[in-house]
Structures are given as C-alpha cells and as structure tokens.
Design goal:
Elements (H helix, E strand, L loop, with lengths): L2 H24 L75 E5 L5 E8 L5 E8 L3 E13 L18 E3 L4 E7 L12 E3 L2 E6 L6 E6 L8 E3 L4 E2 L6 H4 L3
Parallel strand pairs: 1-4
Antiparallel strand pairs: 2-3, 3-6, 4-5, 4-8, 6-11, 7-10, 8-9
Length: about 240
C-alpha cells in the first residue's frame, strides 16, 4: 500500500466520526433540537512522511578544476619515469676506418731518399742517411754497397758495427751508416784520389744480393777524397751509433 492511500483513508474515517457526533446532538429522541454540549474534540493526526536522509553533496568539481580525491591516509606511490619504448638508442660515435698498412718491404732506391754529408768528427768520415718515403715499413738489411767514382769493387764492412736487430723504418723515419773515406794519418791508405760521384746499393734479407734500384746522392762540389782504407759500417737505427765507428 502506498503512503498517499493510507493518508487518504485516515482522513476520511476521522471526518465520518465528526459527522455522526453532530447528528446525535441535533436529534434528541422527539425530534427537538437541543444542545448536547460541546461536541467532542476529535484530534486527527495527519500522516507524516518519514524524513529522508539528506542527499550527499556531489564531489564533482567544476568544469576545468582538478578533482579532489578523498584522502586515504597514504601518500601516492611515486611513478618512475621510463623512456619511450620507441626512443632511439644512443650510440657512441664510431672511429673512422683505418686503411691497412702496406706489406713490409726492403728499403731500396725506389722507396727511400739517400743523402751523403761529410763529417767534421770523426775526420775523413761521411754520413749516409736513408729516409723511408714509402707508405709502409721497409727494412734496411746489412750494409750499404757503395761505389765511388769508377771503382770496380765495393769497400768492406766493419764487422764490429753489426747491430743486434735489422733496422726498421716506418714511413718518414731514417737509418744511418758512416763511411771511413781515408786513413786519418796517411800511413794506412794507398791509392788516394778525389772522386765526384757516388752510387749506393741495397742488400736483401740474405745480406749478399743487391735488390731494387740504387741511389745516387750528390757529393760536395769539390768531391771526396778516398784511399784503399775505405770501409763502411752496417746500417744503424740511430745516427749516434753510426758515427761512433
């Protein structure tokens, strides 16, 4: 049954009771109308709708305002920042490619430059300098095979000057040998003469054969004085070693 129907019935019943009381007062047996005293008071208690709980105010924020979350007593968990999955991976710059060095070869006239310079000390000596002009390492084997002027043979080598290792020249590096041109006191040498040309030839790994092209370093304008005491050192890695003989 609805609340409205119950209220209607209650009001109707109360009205009926009031009308009956008035009728009894008006009629007193013989039809005379007499006052029967005041009519009883009928109290009608209207039906009241039970109070309803007040609506919970909406927590929705105004448009554009941030929502206010109910406090939970716990601090929000920190979210770690992660890089995007499709972010390009950083890479260290790559070193430029280095071309492979040329295979080592034998030093000779085509891949070196040879100079000849007189020395003041020791006296009667000349320094030969061979510089690698190639693009790779070359080896100076043995000793220089020199020919002064129209000589038919090459001078001997000083055996004690032999180095412990083969002289190795990187591009731009130099090797050295000294030439004892003549006797210092004039007693050991014979057939002294002045020459104006010089040829230098190079040995191969065996130390006996001549390989490649020869070199033709110029001599001083006045020439070089030589005699039969002429001899050479082995090729040396340093100039100091070459001029110590």
């Amino acid at each position: 049954m609805s609340v409205r129907t119950s209220r209607t019935r209650l009001i109707t019943a109360a009205a009926g009771v009031a009308i009956a009381a008035l009728s009894m007062t008006a009629c007193n047996g013989d039809g005379d109308v007499k006052s029967a005293g005041p009519a009883p008071t009928v109290t009608v208690t209207p039906f009241t709708t039970p109070p309803t709980a007040p609506a919970t105010p909406s927590t929705s924020a105004a448009p554009g305002a941030p929502s206010a979350a109910a406090p939970t007593g716990k601090a929000p968990a920190a979210t770690a920042s992660k890089p995007a999955a499709n972010a390009p991976a950083s890479s260290a710059p790559k070193a430029p490619a280095v071309p492979a060095a040329a295979n080592p070869s034998t030093c000779e006239g085509s891949n070196t430059k040879t100079t000849a310079a007189p020395l003041n000390r020791p006296v009667n000596h000349m320094l030969l300098t061979v510089t690698n002009t190639g693009s790779g390492i070359c080896y100076l084997y043995g000793y220089p095979a020199v020919r002064f002027g129209e000589a038919q043979s090459v001078p001997p080598v000083i055996d004690d000057s032999k180095p412990q290792a083969v002289v190795t020249l990187k591009p731009g590096e130099s090797g050295y040998a000294s030439v004892n041109l003549s006797s210092t006191d004039g007693t050991d040498g014979a057939n002294g003469r002045t020459v104006t040309s010089l040829e230098v030839y190079f040995h191969g790994p065996s130390g006996n054969e001549s390989v490649g092209a020869g070199a033709h370093p110029p001599l001083p304008a006045k020439g070089a004085y030589v005699d039969d005491s002429l001899k050479v050192t082995y090729w040396q890695q340093s100039m100091d070693d070459a001029v110590s003989w």
